[in-house]
Amino acid sequence: MARNTMIITLLLFLSSYVHSSNSHETWIRAGYWDSVSELPVSDINSALFTHLVCGFSNINYSTYQIHINSSKEPHFSTFTGTVRVKNPSVKTLLSISARREGLPTFSSMIKQSSYRKSFIESSIYTERIYGFDGLDLSVGPSISINMTNLGTLFDEWRVAIASDSKKSGKSQLLLVMSASYLPAQHPVTYPIDIIKRTLDWIHLIAYDYHVPAEFDFTGAHAALYGPSNWVNTDEWIKEWLRGGLSASKLVLGLPYHGYAWTLVNPNENAIGAPSSGPGVTSDGSMGYKNIKSFIKGYGYGAAAVYNSTYVMKLFVVGSTWINFDDVESIKAKISYAKENNLSGYSVFQLSNDDNWILSRAGRLLVKISIFHFILFILMKHWTRDVSIDFE
Ligand SMILES: *[C@@H]1O[C@H](CO)[C@@H](O)[C@H](O)[C@H]1NC(C)=O
Ligand SMILES: *[C@@H]1O[C@H](CO)[C@@H](O)[C@H](O)[C@H]1NC(C)=O
Ligand SMILES: *[C@@H]1O[C@H](CO)[C@@H](O)[C@H](O)[C@H]1NC(C)=O
Ligand SMILES: *[C@@H]1O[C@H](CO)[C@@H](O)[C@H](O)[C@H]1NC(C)=O
Ligand SMILES: *[C@@H]1O[C@H](CO)[C@@H](O)[C@H](O)[C@H]1NC(C)=O
Which atom of ligand 2 is nearest to the CA of 36? Predict the structure, then answer.
């Protein structure tokens, strides 16, 4: 009897555990594939992800319709079918870039009701013919974007998505925004109240904060924490929460790249040390894979050092200063996302991973709950065959 009581207690514990972890929405593990990379879509290890984002499409400057470059079109139109070979349940999103060259077109599109209509209709049409499950709009808090108009776009977009679902009988397309952080642009802030009711979630572009082409001193480009005079992700997330957004709308962006700086004086190599500009590449950006082989090239003894204050890896040799994320910092950031009840993470971008090492780092952390789940099923199965006496 005592043994049965123990089993029941254990079962109750496990079932409450399994239940509570399943009552949240799915833990999002999203990955960006960028068509400018050399990674063939068929090589994507889609089993490691719940969502894959295909980037990037643009907006035509005269029709305000979605434009996909003809050289990329064959990859976009077959994207969903290809990634589903290895993971039939993976969801796909088409990313629309409203940054850099795309910004002027986007900011004029959102000002006019007829332009917005043309954009929204074309976005839904494109999703449906290519078989994507949703849309990801990549847009910064730029001063050239009128945030009232952006809010109007989101409201109209959600209405159109709901109506499309009603007409087609298919489930609603996902609507996601990729947001970036520019504290210098305050008080320009995203329209949080409208975001709450219209978007499924937000990909936080939690990187590229401090880059060598823009600053003449070294800095962490993707710091999770840091002193208040440094931009960091934790501070940004707290700003969203103070603004009234719930943590469950936030998905943490993880960079698969870092930045190299050239130090003015090799002996002065702390964070904030003077820099004469980018190192190694023209803008200093380097994929994880390349950083690893760069470090290896220095031979025995060369190693990057983990800095837990900022949650990043640092490699300094001579006048080269590189900060980046590796398995250790990626794991720390995913744990942070879990502890703070975010909805998951999204990695940028897949071709910079090294044999899926970083992508697997996220998988290990969820294994425990799957293990508990299997244990639960086994025990449930086993106890069905024993008679349990309650006394
Ligand atoms: C945008 O649309 C116009 C009108 O259909 C077309 O002439 C132009 O080539 C398009 N631009 C691009 C970049 O495709
Ligand atoms: C399409 O992509 C090719 C190759 O990336 C590029 O050379 C070309 O300029 C692009 N065309 C347009 C209209 O953006
Ligand atoms: C933003 O757009 C709204 C509505 O079109 C307008 O009332 C407001 O003045 C605009 N704000 C700025 C800063 O231009
Ligand atoms: C991280 O780097 C900063 C600045 O260089 C330094 O002050 C701090 O002690 C480092 N933290 C760790 C844990 O190494
Ligand atoms: C996350 O959610 C759990 C369960 O609802 C709660 O106990 C915990 O305080 C939350 N964590 C944060 C940082 O809000």
Answer: 5
